[in-house]
Predict the structure.
Amino acid sequence: MTDRSEADSARETRRWCFADQLGPHFLDRPDQLALLIESRAVFERRRFHRRKAHLVLSALRHRAAELGGQAVFLQTRTYREALAQVDGPLSVCQPTSWAADRFVRSLPSVEVLPARGFCTTGDQFERWAGGQRTLRLENFYRSARRRFDLLMDGDEPVTGRWNFDADNREPAPKNEPALGVPAPWRPDEDEIDEQVRADLDRWERDGEVAFVGSDGPREFAVTATEAQQSLEVFLRDRLPHFGPHEDAMLAGDRFMAHSLLSAPMNLGLLDPLQCAYAAEDAYRDGTAPLASVEGYIRQLIGWRDYIWHVYWHFGRNYRRRNALQAHAALPDWFAELDADAVEAHCLRDVLAQVRDHGWVHHIPRLMVLSNYALQRGWHPSAVTDWFHRCFVDGYDWVMVANVVGMSLHADGGLMATKPYAAGGAYINRMSDYCGGCRYRPGVRVGDDACPFTAGYWSFLSRNSEALQGNHRMKQPLAGLGRLKDLDEVLAQQRAMGNRPP
Ligand code: SF4
């Protein structure tokens, strides 16, 4: 390096990349100087899933190794300790939580740039939201399709249809233990993974940190190269099958045809817009059907971006909303991921997957875990925190809107027009769980009563007043009014308390 370039480097603004900003698109140029900080205090404050801690630290350390001398990599207790060791100006892309955003904006030597890693910018979203009466996902999604010219023929969607949701709600295939789709990409661990594992073991032994869940071989990509490989395998082998069974669950097939790309994408390793264009290419090349490609693109430029922008749009107090006045604490068996204490087949299996892998796809999250929490009136903040800590792809921005808005209806309907409460009949239709369960989905009182069915009526009864004005709840509330054994259902639920079902 010449004297001149050393001087230039000294003056150059260094890009501080958080542990979820690890892809090349968080740097302005491939050779930009970078700062990476591994803060142990993050893990001391909350009990994260062991696999999540492993994934995040592995990704951060892999990025540090990749960047070599281009990055300053500091392993300290707190961010402030690390920042005290850094000279010169810093810039950072908008961090992904209100707390981190406030922190970086309080630092005088740090320039905060607009967010990266999403498709629609904050300004574009606010311009769109300004012209809407309610923030309907479908409208946002269509505006994004037009803006990014994705699956469009001029001003019209290809084939004239915007939405293939109706084709993508198939139940689980009957008498099939698995969907029969090629397996997803799997990583090989390396010495960085081993070192992370040894460090986490030591921290735990020393009593510095505590985790929930089990350790196991890494299952998700931690570098941009790995993430690209997993994307290519998904596009080639699994995208053609994605879609029809998107909302179904099979006890013997935890991946179904899902992409498993949310973890690397939320680490910032994949650019979602590039993924969407790659999926469109698969359709245009004739290697994947339109319903599958549209369903996947909807997840990327629609749902994922929508959740991100809702997080900021409704302000920092959105997370505290509790429209249904749900105040119950999470029972220990749930908080500790004690699946073995649970007899209800669906909940037992899903909780075991969370314990063992820190990941289940979106339907078990919504229709089993969150549904159970909604029915029991668990506090939205506690449920949000649980999802954030226990899922490898969970971050504050992901979980606040998903849990408060979507799953628990705690925002009173700003995001979803009705609560996602469902009884055992729904789980029975969309999965193969009920056949192997000691409970019966159609029974609401007695020893065989399905906890989801009984919990559904109990939820409606407890919230009937709050839901009265919601026209989409008219029919369920009318059903509640016709229930002859409601008192018995409620007495049974009270007697059960917080015990595992
Ligand atoms: Fe789940 Fe109820 Fe079906 Fe059992 S009967 S698997 S508890 S929905």
User: Anything to note?
Assistant: The longest strand covers residues 34-39. The two ends are 66 Å apart (CA to CA).
